[in-house]
Structure formats: C-alpha cells, structure tokens
Write a structure and sequence with these properties.
The structure holds 2 protein chains of 2 kinds. Chain A is an alpha+beta fold. In chain B, helix 3 runs antiparallel to helix 4, helix 6 packs antiparallel against helix 7 and helix 8 packs antiparallel against helix 9. The chains are: A alpha+beta, B alpha+beta. Chains A and B meet through helix 7, helix 8, helix 10 and helix 11 of A and helix 1, helix 3, helix 12 and strand 15 of B.
C-alpha cells in the first residue's frame, strides 16, 4: 500500500500516477487506498476519488467500490448496483485516461470489471462481487464527448456572472444576497425532469421554474415525447378542451391534437353523471 | 401513461387538486385492516428503529428500539411485533367456509370433486409506501430462518418464541404483494395514485404527504402549495413538519435529535428511553394519521364489482399458507427453485391480464382508456340480421352492425367480447367495416346464446341498443401448463434435487458493533 498523501488535488493526482506506475512496473500486488484521479469533464478537469484501486501482478488495474447497501442471499437492489456501476465507470474512464498517458500507453490495462464490496445479509461481514461496467462506461464516454464545453456555456452568460457565495469567515454564512445569486442561476438554462429530484440540490429551484412555465416535462420525462409539439400544460389543455379549429384554417389535423381531443371526450363521457346508455353497457 | 391519465394530470395542474382516475375502488379494503408504519436505521440492513402498529386508529402500539445496533434489543422489538401482529394474522384462520374443488385422484387418475376449507376472511396489512412493502419483505427474510431455543437448544442467540413464525407470515405477505391486484399487503401511496391523478410526476407521488395534499388540500391552499409544504416545510429547529413516511428517516432528524438521544440512552441517563419513545412518536404519528386519512378517502369510493373476486383469491392464498404452517413445512427457501419461480411468474402474468380486464369492465373511465387505445369500442346497434350455421342442427349466428366513434384495431376474424346482462361473456367475430359508412362495424355473434335453435331472449342486441365490445378476453387464462418438477429442462437447472435444509444466518463477530 503506497503512501499517497500530498498537498492539493494536483499533488495527489501526480502522486497517484507515480504510485500506479511504480506498482505496475514492480509486478506485484498493490492496493492504492483512496487515490485521486483527474478526468476532463466539459473541458475542465474534475477530481475523482475511488475507494481503492488494485494493481495486479500482471500489470492490470481494478477499481474497488465500497457501498453500504446489503447483499441479501446473493442479490442486491439492482437500482443501487446500477448506480454504483455508473459511478465506478467514471473511475475506469479516468484510469484509462491515465494509462494512455503513462507507462506504455495501454488503456486496456484497466479491467472493465470492478470489485463491488457490500455488507453480506444482515451482518457487517464484507462480501465482494465483480460487476461488468462496459455498458455504463460506453454510455458515460459518449455523454462526456457530447457535453458542451464549460467555456462555451460561460461565453453565452452575461459578463460578471458568478455563483460565488462570498462565504464569511465561519465558512457557513453566505455573504452574497440571495436575489443576486438567484439571478445568476436564472441566467443558465436548465432542462428539468422529475428524476433530477433524486440527484441535484438545485432540483426544487428548477422544478419551481418549470412549473411556473407550465412545462409538461415537470410531470414526467415521457410526456414530452407523447405530446409532440405541445410543450406547456396550457397548450395541451387548450388543444384538448378548447373549441375545434375552424375548417378552413385547420389544414392537415395534428395527430396529437386529434388523440387529445378524443381522450378528453371519452374522459368527459365516462365521468358525466349519472351513468346512461353507453356506460351502463360497459359495466 | 395513457393519454387519458396525462390529461387528468394536466387538469389537476389547472384546478390545483387531484382528478379521479377511476369511478370505483379497484382494491378490496377490509373492515379491520392492520396498519404498520415502520422506521429503519440508516446504514444497517433490517435494523428496525421503531414502528406504530395496530388496527385501532386511536390506539396504535408504539414499539421502539432504543439502540438499533444492539441485537438483543432488536430481538425484543421483533418479539413485541409478533405479539401484536400474529393474533391479528392468525385471527382469520378459524372461520372457514367449505368450497368445492376438482382434483385429480392420484389412485384412479379421475377428476373428483372434493370439499376444501376457505377462510371467510383474511388479514390485510397497510403500509405507507412501496418502500414499506420492501421493508416488510426484508423483515420477513431476517426473521424466518432464526431458531428459537425450543427448536434448537444449542443455538447461541435464540430468537424469541414466535419471531420465526412472524417472519414466515411477513414473507408470505411480501410475496403476495407482487401479484397484481392482490390486497393482502398494500402500500397507501400506490393505492391512492391508482385512483387519483395529481398535478405532479409519478416520482413525486411516492411521497405520501404530498400525494394527500393534492387529493385533499387543506382549506385555502392549492394542491401544489400544500404538496410543497408537505415536502419541504421545516420548523425553527430545522425539522421537517411532515416527516417522511419511512422506513428511512430524515437525515436532519437522525443527526440533530436521534443520535444525541441514543447516546444519552447508551450512557444510561435516566429518562432516556422515554425520551426516545416520544421522539420516534413525533416521526411516526403524522404518517399513521396520513395512512388512515388515505383509508377514509378510499372508503368513500364504491368498491368495483370484480374486486371481491380478486379478494377471494387473496383468501385462498391466506388459507394455503395457513395450511403450510399447520402442516409443519419449513420456512420459504432463500431462493425459489426453477419450477416455483416459473409458476409464480406465470401466475403473476395471468393476474396482471385479469386485473387489466376486470378493471376495465368495472369502470367506464378505465374502459375509456382502453377504447382510446383501440382495444375496445362502444356504440349503437344499427342493424341485426339473423343468420344460421349450415350444420345439421342450425345454430344462430346473427350479424350485428354497430356505429361507433372509436377506432378499434381490428383484423378480419378477430375475436371480440362483451358482457351480457347476467354477467356472462359473449364472444363474437369481426366481419368487416360497412362500405361507405365510416364508423360502422359488423360482427358475427358466435356464442352466449344458449343451446337452442333460437337464441335465448336478451342474448342478441336489438336495434338501438348501446353495446360495448372489447378486443381482450374478460377472463384470460394463463399459458400452457408447466412440466412436472422432475421433467424440468436442463436450461432451467434440470430436475431439482432434494431440498436442502436452510440454515439460519450465522452470527458473526461484526454483528455486534
């Protein structure tokens, strides 16, 4: 277990790279405890800290991820395993980047199976399993390649936009007025979906904004595809319940609008009290 | 989500309160359900923190584990839980009715009618959310393999007497909850969101407080405002006004209130246990009230006609498990063998198809969704032409023409079904569309008209009648029968060997932190 302590993130990444190279060259088992890796995200480096990286005697590397959810009877919550695999895939990408730059430049030395360590059953005994991360790795790689560069996003913002909280000396109290900060956040566009709530601390802000705009995506990501060009709640309701467009201006009817009008008519028919004819026939 | 549901959500946004998705209640609710609101400890699997449990809304029983990492205290909690739950669960075992069932006689191979017991009632467990259902399953798993001192005198940490039995029952409830349409164990959030569409996403509907806020907002607030308050409002001390429905607790509560209180209990300070009880009650009580409010809202809806039929299947399932327990069978295995797994899967698929058909037949609003999807059509009969088969004894095969605004996806010869006045299903065949008359469809009746030459009165619709035909069967059957266990193909692991004895989870040094 090489010592990886160093000053600052850059120092620690350099230290990690050095330790990995040495351990690989030595051709023995080595365990790097909380190494620090760098991965360019949208053109700026992001620092990542996997729980551990194992160097095999054959010179290959394995990412180790330790999680607190249990493995009961050999199976863990698939959603949680999936999240862990996505997280580890980012570490694998960062290691591949490092492998390509150092040593003999062979990214294949990073194994695509990660070691997931979890408590077993109801005890605190560790149980480990190999998880294949090729799929999340490919997904993440594609997403990273498609990300807009931070400079490009920043170029579109008004000059002087900053998210700096201007923290006071105690490190907790924000010195910046909330309105100013809110205005800065407003300047950046956001594509809110309900899934954001589980992952992002700004989600409630984005949700309030999406709801104020009446965006249909606030009700679920799937709705956007279902409703075609109708992106606001207001326009959907107008299309479904409003007066029918006059014949001469109607042209080719939009299939989404036609389906919505039919849905509204059927819903109104089924809800209209009291039950008559057709509903009685359906009972 | 169907377009009708989407539309209902939009209407909910516009009106600021939830909109109905059904006109009847599609799940059976018993007179006396047992409400169970569990809380768990963060970071440890199956370490209960406390629970409110009971059938009496005014007097729930509060159970607390003052130090969740202490396995003895945990055992004591489970023993108390068994004391509270088992009399309720077993209370339905004695009252039985006799039902007739066809069985194959193993000696002669003939089908014979036998009388079997069916419990007249069954227990019903209500938990706040889907996470609560998983937690019931987890508790069942953690208890059912434990051994009591009586079963195994040598066991180092014997379980309290009735705990393994409760584990088996909770496992049964958890397994049954996976069958679509079953009502032995129901999460309140799922029940409510089946019957109402809110102006938020399905993800946000999993918050019981927010869901109730949309369905029944307090005076002067819209659903969205009330839901936001239920999600985020905190008091001066930073604690949520509406604690989460669990089983996980709010981290602010864990760090600021719970951890210090547990530390005081560990230090042996007087009154610390009472303080913990009071603390956990503040977290559990609002959820307890919310579940009962949900019960009130659901009881206001009339029960669907066919929900009782599904409840009867729950009673069968309860009776079967009662018999397994009485026969002294071992607890459910950790993993099902291939045959059991395939059987369960097939049963759930059938149950899903039946549930979908029955909900549509019970509820015009659900049927409207099926009509929109092209799986049913309703309209007025415009013409009836009597025709007969050319067999030796001619049978009636009348042609019925229906004018409808619906757009069913019909191929020639497709089977359609409708309900007759006596509740039986009548089948027909699609013949074709009437040329020159859009919306007019002709079907040929093929059954449900009795055995005679002339159709029974009322079995053939008349001109001017309103009828509703479905493209789906009303009582769908499962797929072909599965092979016998000893003929399990090698793709599924081959014939199962002798079932191994399931050992209890070993106690490890890391168990006691």
């Amino acid at each position: 277990m090489p010592d990886l302590t160093a000053g600052g993130p850059e120092g620690r990444t350099a230290r990690t790279a050095l330790a990995l190279r040495e351990a690989t060259a030595a051709g023995r088992w080595a365990l790097l405890d909380h190494p620090l890796l760098a991965l360019p995200v949208a053109g700026t480096p992001a620092f990542l800290e996997p729980d551990a990286v194992v160097v095999h005697p054959d010179g290959t590397w394995t990412v180790v991820e330790i999680k607190s959810f249990p493995v009961i009877d050999g199976a863990a919550d698939p959603a949680k395993v999936g999240a862990a695999a996505r997280q580890a895939a980012v570490y694998v990408l960062a290691l591949e980047e490092l492998a390509a730059r150092t040593a003999d430049g062979d990214p294949a030395r990073v194994r695509h199976e990660i070691l997931l360590v979890c408590p077993k059953d109801f005890a605190n005994v560790p149980a480990a399993g190999l998880v294949d991360v090729r799929k999340p790795r490919a997904t993440t790689r594609r997403q990273l390649a498609r990300l807009a560069r931070v400079e490009d996003i920043a170029a579109e913002l008004p000059a002087g936009t900053t998210f700096d909280l201007c923290l006071a000396d105690d490190g907790k109290t924000a010195g910046r007025p909330a309105e100013e900060l809110a205005a800065a956040v407003e300047a950046v566009g956001a594509a809110y979906a309900p899934e954001c709530l589980a992952a992002c601390e700004l989600a409630f802000h984005c949700r309030a904004r999406a709801r104020a705009e009446g965006a249909v995506a606030a009700l679920g990501r799937g709705l956007r595809g279902e409703l075609g060009g109708l992106t606001t709640v207001e326009s959907v309701l107008a299309a479904a319940l409003g007066p029918e467009p006059a014949e001469e201006e109607a042209g080719v009817p939009d299939p989404t609008v036609a389906a919505l009008r039919r849905a509204a008519a059927l819903r109104a028919e089924a809800l209209a009290p009291p039950l008559t004819g057709i509903e009685a026939a359906c009972r | 989500m169907s377009l009708i549901t989407t539309l209902a959500r939009m209407e909910a946004v516009r009106d600021g309160r939830a909109q109905p998705l059904t006109t009847v209640r599609h799940r059976h609710l018993t007179e006396r359900p047992l409400v169970f609101v569990p809380l768990t400890t963060a970071g440890e699997a199956g370490a209960p923190l406390g629970a409110l449990v009971g059938t009496d809304r005014e007097r729930p029983r509060l159970l607390v584990v003052p130090q969740p990492r202490d396995r003895d205290l945990r055992s004591a909690f489970l023993a108390e839980l068994a004391e509270e739950m088992l009399p309720y669960v077993e209370g339905f075992a004695g009252d039985v009715t006799l039902e007739e069932r066809k069985e194959t006689d193993p000696a002669t191979g003939k089908k014979v009618t036998v009388q079997v017991e069916l419990c007249a009632g069954a227990p019903q467990l209500l938990v706040p959310s889907a996470a609560g259902v998983s937690y019931v399953r987890l508790l069942g798993r953690s208890m059912r393999f434990r051994r009591t001192a009586e079963q195994d005198p040598g066991t180092p940490h014997p379980a309290p007497p009735r705990v393994p039995l409760l584990g088996r029952w909770l496992t049964h409830f958890g397994e049954r909850a996976r069958v679509p349409g079953s009502s032995l164990l129901l999460p309140m959030t799922e029940l409510l969101s089946r019957h109402w569409a809110t102006g938020q996403s399905t993800l946000e509907d999993q918050h019981l407080g927010a869901l109730l806020a949309w369905i029944d907002p307090p005076e002067g607030l819209t659903g969205a405002e009330a839901a936001l308050r239920a999600e985020l409002a905190r008091d001066a001390a930073g604690q949520l006004l509406h604690p989460p429905a669990g089983p996980a607790t709010d981290p602010a509560f864990d760090n600021k209130l719970l951890a210090p209180a547990v530390a005081r209990h560990d230090a042996g300070l007087p009154g610390a246990a009472e303080e913990l009880r009071a603390l956990l009650e503040t977290q559990l009580r609002p959820t307890w009230e919310a579940v009962w409010r949900g019960v009130d809202l659901l009881r206001a809806l009339p029960e669907g006609e066919r929900a009782g039929e599904r409840w009867k299947r729950d009673r069968w399932s309860y009776t079967a498990h009662r018999d397994r327990v009485r026969a002294g069978e071992p607890p459910q295995p950790r993993r099902d063998d291939a045959v059991t797994a395939a059987r369960k899967l097939a049963a759930r698929e059938t149950a899903q198809a039946q549930l979908e058909a029955q909900e549509a037949l019970d509820d015009p609003l659900v049927m409207a969704g099926r009509r929109l999807a092209g799986e049913a059509f309703a309209g007025e009969v415009t013409e009836v032409v009597m025709e007969y088969t050319e067999a030796k004894v001619p049978r009636p095969r009348p042609l019925v023409t229906v004018r409808t605004d619906d757009g069913p996806y019909l191929a020639e010869g497709a089977k359609v079904h409708r309900v007759l006045a006596d509740g039986k299903a009548q089948s027909a065949e699609f013949v074709g569309r009437v040329p020159g008359d859009p919306g007019a469809l002709t079907v040929r009746l093929t059954g449900g008209m009795g055995r005679g030459k002339a159709p029974e009165p009322g079995s053939v619709p008349e001109k001017g009648d309103r009828v509703c035909w479905t493209l789906f069967e009303h009582a769908p059957r499962g797929g072909p029968e599965l092979p016998d266990p000893e003929r399990t193909p090698w793709t599924h692991g081959g014939p199962p060997g002798e079932p191994g004895v399931e050992l209890p989870d070993p106690v490890t040094a890391e168990d006691l932190l």
